Design the sequence.
């Protein structure tokens, strides 16, 4: 059990770091967009402390699209990361996919592609749901 | 005058508006020049490209691919600047040829997928309605497919696999993102007054799209293509690393990196995989830094920080 956790450290770290930088860049763009909006100016002019302007006005609003990303991330989790699993030889879906395609085992390949396709659809739906949950302005009819 | 960049008729000096109008190229150059990192990246990238393309003409391909069994895994020396691989082949030569192949393929994929995405996106965004609906559903379908898996499956099942086929397979899937981006920008552009004015004047649709809407989107297209170029080179090398990229006869940077999956090589023979990995890292960083600078040129809000 402990060894299992130990072997998870590097692959998960690599995967998490990759995802983090994408999120950071996206969040940066969002914050740049948000902080010139009028409501930030209003908050500043009515005397909201600078720290609160950032955490509650700018950050809260920039976070909305990031929250929607959570749904898409699920797709990556279920689909398995082919590169990471191959580099760390971690026996997951990605590794299974590579071995089955090398041995021309197309029924397994079929199923795996189907699973990740289904995961993508579920992920998209989840991200829509999350978005409508965190952002009251968006409602699904 | 600013909205109609590509379509200015030659006017005499007296008719020209007095506002200083900086062209897109000038703005981009200014942003790159002011950003030390981007300028350095541009110089470094040009140096790399020059070395790679000039070098690949000077190098003798037969000599590089010749297998020399007495010289397996030789350390870097005067003869082999970066040592040799498991077949006694010169790593430096393979690196140059591989970099040339990787970069060329990345650029071609970016151009082809950019062209398709641009055309589809412009048509879909400009005309809207039924056409837009049909095209967007097709794009949704392609985007939902697990990209990497389908590409690997296609690469395995095609009867003849060579470089053009590889480029075609990649382009089939990579145009969708660009088409979506261009579509959303075109939708916004379509509502603007200058398009309506042109329509009233009786300009044909294709002329409005080509000469009026397209120039206004050019900055976004350039930025997006620069940033995806790095990604495309990455995908190509990644697939080759997995063994599903370029055929064996065409060395790529990924081929050199894939030698590192041998534990003996990765522990003791750094000269086999380290140069290729570093080169990929440097190329992608350079392209990204330049892309960020161009992004600031295209989007004024990015300059506020």
Sequence:
């Amino acid at each position: 059990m402990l060894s299992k956790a130990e072997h998870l450290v590097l692959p998960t770290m690599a995967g998490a770091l990759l995802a983090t930088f994408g999120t950071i860049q996206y969040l940066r763009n969002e914050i740049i967009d948000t902080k010139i909006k009028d409501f930030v100016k209003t908050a500043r002019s009515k005397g909201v402390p600078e720290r609160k302007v950032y955490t509650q006005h700018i950050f809260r609003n920039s976070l909305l699209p990031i929250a929607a990303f959570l749904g898409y991330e699920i797709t990556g989790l279920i689909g398995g990361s082919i590169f990471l699993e191959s580099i760390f030889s971690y026996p997951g879906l990605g590794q299974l996919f590579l071995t089955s395609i090398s041995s021309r085992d197309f029924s397994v390949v079929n199923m795996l592609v189907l699973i990740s396709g289904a995961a993508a659809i579920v992920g998209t739906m989840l991200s829509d749901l999350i978005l409508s949950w965190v952002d009251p302005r968006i409602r699904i009819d | 005058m600013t909205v109609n960049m590509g379509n200015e008729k030659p006017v005499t000096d007296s008719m020209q508006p007095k506002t200083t109008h900086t062209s897109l190229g000038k703005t981009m150059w200014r942003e790159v020049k002011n950003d030390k990192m981007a300028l350095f990246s541009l110089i470094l990238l040009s140096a790399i490209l020059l070395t790679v393309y000039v070098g690949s003409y000077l190098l003798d391909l037969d000599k590089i691919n010749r297998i020399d069994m007495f010289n397996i895994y030789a350390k870097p020396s005067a003869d082999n600047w970066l040592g040799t691989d498991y077949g006694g082949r010169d790593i430096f030569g393979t690196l140059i040829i591989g970099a040339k192949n990787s970069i060329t393929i990345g650029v071609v994929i970016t151009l082809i997928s950019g062209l398709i995405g641009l055309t589809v996106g412009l048509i879909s965004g400009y005309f809207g309605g039924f056409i837009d609906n049909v095209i967007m559903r097709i794009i949704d379908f392609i985007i939902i497919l697990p990209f990497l898996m389908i590409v690997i499956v296609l690469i395995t099942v095609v009867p003849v696999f060579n470089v053009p086929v590889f480029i075609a397979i990649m382009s089939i899937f990579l145009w969708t993102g660009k088409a979506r981006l261009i579509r959303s920008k075109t939708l916004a552009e379509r509502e603007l007054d200058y398009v309506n004015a042109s329509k009233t004047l009786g300009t044909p649709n294709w002329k409005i799209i080509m000469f009026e809407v397209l120039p206004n989107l050019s900055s976004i297209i350039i930025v997006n293509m620069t940033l995806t170029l790095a990604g495309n080179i990455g995908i190509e090398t990644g697939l080759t690393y997995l063994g599903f990229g370029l055929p064996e006869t065409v060395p790529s940077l990924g081929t050199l990196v894939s030698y590192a999956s041998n534990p003996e090589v990765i522990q003791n023979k750094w000269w086999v995989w380290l140069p290729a990995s570093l080169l990929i890292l440097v190329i992608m960083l350079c392209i990204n830094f330049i892309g960020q600078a161009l992004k600031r040129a295209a989007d004024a809000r990015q300059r506020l920080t």
Remarks:
- Chain B has a mean pLDDT of 81.
- The first helix of chain B runs from residue 24 to 34.
- The CA atoms of residues 29 and 228 of chain B lie 20 Å apart.
